[in-house]
């Protein structure tokens, strides 16, 4: 294919009353999902648009003094903390991925969804005190809700595109464990590059040698919505092997799909590798990972020519994946008890 690119499409028709417009959006989403696994949404509804002012306010969490951020750290980085999965991960030297940030769960919107003393995947999210960042929690909760709403609409579109009833996926996501993450990629220090091989750390793009600040990977779950901050660096891997730049256009959201959805749909939806190049300035991003309940059973869909697989609990799959692949969670595998094999129905 000559000059491959990431498709950009208007999502306005998805929320209108015209069935033909919605069908056209469904067709374009299905095409992008099956061919490259990445797309850029534009013409978002007002409630899903993150304006620059709100984005700056949400990212102001990174301006908090270190003594306050350390109170949000994961237990892996601060043994006195109760939180294992939700919370702050600091910068770590010696890895291809060089980032800091915080993972926040659905208790941001509905506190009753946090389960004390139970599954780490359902634990309470540590948040900055209101007096440190007045109104930050409410702004983050509003954004969480808007991304949850948009994700649900996109999953219904995917279901229609697959020829399934549009509510096929709805039940699995009721009281799900979707994650709102805030990430900061600073300019790498020489110390952060120690103990990393040249092959893992450096690449050439458009004739320029650049280091990585986010390693190549495909997301593990279902659907990711990403808000960028105006700084380039994000790339997706085309099926011909080329790395495609995803420009951070104002008023848009990047969409990519995860490995579980790829498996669930028998490969009809593609989970695509992506990476972050280090440039000469810091970069921030706000991904929203749309995730089902911990006990959601992933089993073959009623689709033709889809290879059968053994059903599994989403929570078990997620835990096994992140604790072996994500640098911020490595080593915490024994801190959660697997649910085991789902009972036959």
Class by SSE composition: alpha+beta
Helicity level: 10-25%
Count of domain modules: 1
Any idea of the CATH topology?
A: Jelly Rolls
Major sheet: arrangement of strands = 1-2-11-8-13-5-4-3
Q: Quickly count the helices.
A: 7
The tally of strands reads: 15
The CATH superfamily appears as: B-lactam Antibiotic, Isopenicillin N Synthase, Chain
The largest β sheet comes out as: 8 strands, mixed
Shape assignment? globular
Essential attributes:
345 residues; alpha+beta; Jelly Rolls; eight-stranded mixed sheet; five-stranded antiparallel sheet; 22% helix; 21% strand
Describe this structure in words.
Helix 1 (19-35) links the parallel strand 1 and strand 2. The protein has one domain (8-335): Jelly Rolls (Sandwich), CATH 2.60.120. It has an eight-stranded mixed sheet with strand order 1-2-11-8-13-5-4-3. A five-stranded antiparallel sheet has the order 6-7-12-9-10. Strands 14-15 form a two-stranded antiparallel sheet. The N and C termini lie far apart (45 Å). It has 345 residues and is α+β, with helices and mostly antiparallel strands. Helix 1 crosses helix 4. The chain has helices at residues 19-35, 52-59, 66-69, 136-161, 198-201, 259-264, 314-325, and strands at residues 8-10, 38-42, 87-89, 100-104, 179-185, 202-205, 208-217, 223-228, 234-237, 243-245, 253-257, 274-277, 283-290, 297-298, 312-313. It has seven helices and 15 strands. The mean pLDDT is 93. It is 22% helix and 21% strand.
